[in-house]
Design a protein that fits this description.
The chain is α+β, with helices and mostly antiparallel strands. It has two domains: 129 residues, no CATH class; 79 residues, Histidine kinase CheA-like, P2 response regulator-binding domain (Alpha-Beta Plaits), CATH 3.30.70. It is 57% helix and 12% strand. Strands 2-3-1-4 form a four-stranded antiparallel beta sheet, sandwiched between helices. Helix 2 packs antiparallel against helix 5 and helix 3 crosses helix 4. The longest helix is centred in the N-terminal third of the chain and has 27 residues. The N terminus is likely disordered.
Length: 225
């Protein structure tokens, strides 16, 4: 039981949906964070140095973290630094007690934890808004997943021809090539590309197996975030 002298945090509750001024302020803050985060994350010089799937996925993660930062800022603005310490404690708990598969999963874990915290603080309007922003980002970014394709055991002396053949099939499937790395000593090619929203891994895999000539075909290994 809390002591009688315990100061309760202020709470606007469901009435927050009627506070159009606060809703607009929060909305603009989240939009600004995403836009500015995107300006840094998708800097034109960064794309020229991307050659792995993790590097290609990084801009999406940075934008999600920009949203996380804006959400934290709005919470602290509403409740003060005491909530900042709570968030710091939650971050430490997730860092040492949660095994996320990737930085992308970590950013989502932090985001849903913050949404739960906002709901628990009786700010349903901001919880709904933060959820909507996160949902849109996930929909936009994951609609074009970044894939890493390894083609191994290519017939000796046919690496260049194989590269042309595989690249042509990926282009026909509307995949956006990010990088191509030929390893002549290992008879291997590594591709990093974005898959279109209307195609699946199975469809692209079948096209590669059916359309690449047998005399330049290698063994395919996929890695998708």
């Amino acid at each position: 039981m809390f002591g009688a002298d315990m100061t309760m945090l202020p709470s606007i509750g469901w009435a927050g949906f009627l506070d159009w001024e606060q809703l607009l302020q929060a909305f603009l803050a989240l939009v600004l964070a995403i836009v500015l985060g995107g300006v840094v994350a998708f800097h034109p010089t960064t794309a020229r140095t991307v050659d792995t799937r993790e590097e290609a996925e990084l801009p999406k993660v940075l934008v999600m973290y920009a949203l996380v930062g804006a959400v934290i800022g709005e919470i602290v603005l509403a409740y003060g630094m005491v909530i900042g310490f709570v968030i710091f404690g939650l971050g430490g708990l997730m860092r040492f007690r949660t095994d996320a598969a990737s930085t992308r999963d970590t950013s989502r874990l932090i985001m849903v934890t913050l949404i739960g915290l906002i709901a628990g603080l009786n700010l349903p309007h901001f919880a709904v808004m933060a959820t909507a922003f996160a949902w849109v980002l996930v929909y936009v970014f994951d609609g074009h997943p970044v894939c890493e394709l390894e083609v191994q055991e290519i017939p000796k002396g046919r690496l260049k021809d194989a590269a042309l053949a595989y690249r042509a099939v990926l282009a026909d499937m509307d995949c956006k090539l990010i990088s191509e790395n030929k390893q002549f000593g290992k008879s291997r090619i590594d591709y990093v590309f974005r898959m279109p929203r209307n195609k699946t891994q199975e469809q692209v895999h079948k096209a590669l197996c059916d359309s690449v000539p047998h005399d330049v075909r290698g063994e395919i290994d996929w890695e998708i975030e």
